[in-house]
Amino acid sequence: MDVVVASSSIEAGIGCWDLHTGAEQLRYKLCASPPHGLVCVGQRFLASSQLREPSASGSVHYWSWSKPQVDVKSFPAEQIKPLAANSEGTYIVGGGLSGNIYLWEVASGRLLKKWHAHYRAVSCLVFSDDDSLLISGSEDGGIRVWSLLLIFDDFRRQQRSQLYEHNFKEHTLCVTDVVTGYGGGNAIIVSASLDRTCNVWSISKEKLLRKIVFPTIVDAIALDPGEHVFFAGGRDGKIYVAALNAESTSDSKYGLHIINCFSNHSNTVTCLVYSISGNCLISGSEDGVIRVWDAKSHNIVRVFKHAKGPVNNILVIRQQLSQMNLQSSSRRQGSSLPPPLEKYPIVEDPTDLKAVIGRQATCSNSTEALYLRSDVINGQIKELQQQGSASAEMEIERLKHDYERSINTVQQCRIRELLSGNFYL
């Protein structure tokens, strides 16, 4: 069953409908989400950052599928706007008003990483289809691409002059939406901005492929799965269809590369999602209505009405029969969601970090690896320093080199296990 989930910027809760029958499902209470602030975590539960006054502290709420009330409340160090989760639901990423990005482990709630990503607030976050990259957009107009392998690799980070992999700076105003295609590091990125443009980028080539100027501000984008066109939701209530083909030179009354336009919303189109299973486009608007469109004919297939207020987030979630049975069981037994997200990272004692000394073919050969604590290595170095000989100095340099290389090996193994969803700190 495909379920449409929608939230609002006012305290109107989260609506939930069967995409194909239109039947309303459970309505979740007490949610006022910012744009891009609603996410489904590993198909297991809903999470949303909460829209509050800029001076107020931030919060992130969890809802289980079976209960309308908030199950878990978290209070990060600052107000979080956009949220994103990897496909396995092993971690959640949030963007702060300060320009910081926070990465939490879902199972434990631990804050694993925090880094300053942008000069102004982070406005949107999205993972690549293979979960290896994180793309962020900001109110400063910048778009940056982050490699998770690098984010978790402290040794490599120290060797870099900047943390991001790519930095796209063509937009002159706040980035309103970012979507990515298929192909991981070889995918395209489409971004929208308050400057009334949508840009198409190549990640691997690190270049702008196309800039499209719209007659209105675009707040939402959705990609055609074949990546021939993308849909852009405008503040004039219209949905524009723009060509992605780099060779296309089509012109129309709407503007260069804009090949079509359709509308039924009476106000700003705030969010767009493409559903592959139904081959349909779902749009939300400030008029409080969610419309389901046939992607080819652009005819309205179904209409959902949110309880009240503008719609600013839409998700389409595939629920299996086994999940529905689990939800029914959790109603009787009570749900079990992860703990709240931590406000601050735990500072680890570097002397407790274990390094692998000697050859290690793979991460799985941990039983054959020889582990030595860093304080043991430091003790060996001190003994050699007391000798003061040239050979001792050479041995010290060798130990330091082997130690750094071993630390790097351990970190790489941790990163691979984390990205595969099998890593617990």
Shape: globular
**Residue-averaged pLDDT, rounded?**
84
> Beta fraction of the residues?
35-45%
Class from secondary-structure proportions: alpha+beta
| Secondary structure tally, helices | 5
What oligomerization state is this entry in? Answer: single chain
Main sheet summary: 4 strands, antiparallel
Number of strands: 29
Residue share in helix: 10-25%
Global Rg: 24 Å
CA(first)-CA(last) distance = 35 Å
Low-confidence stretches: 328-333, 349-373
Strand order of the largest sheet: 3-4-5-6
Organism: Prunus mume (Japanese apricot)
Keywords: Repeat, WD repeat
Protein name: Protein ROOT INITIATION DEFECTIVE 3
InterPro entries: Quinoprotein_ADH-like_sf (IPR011047), WD40/YVTN_repeat-like_dom_sf (IPR015943), WD40_PAC1 (IPR020472), WD40_repeat_CS (IPR019775), WD40_rpt (IPR001680), WDR18/Ipi3/RID3 (IPR045227)
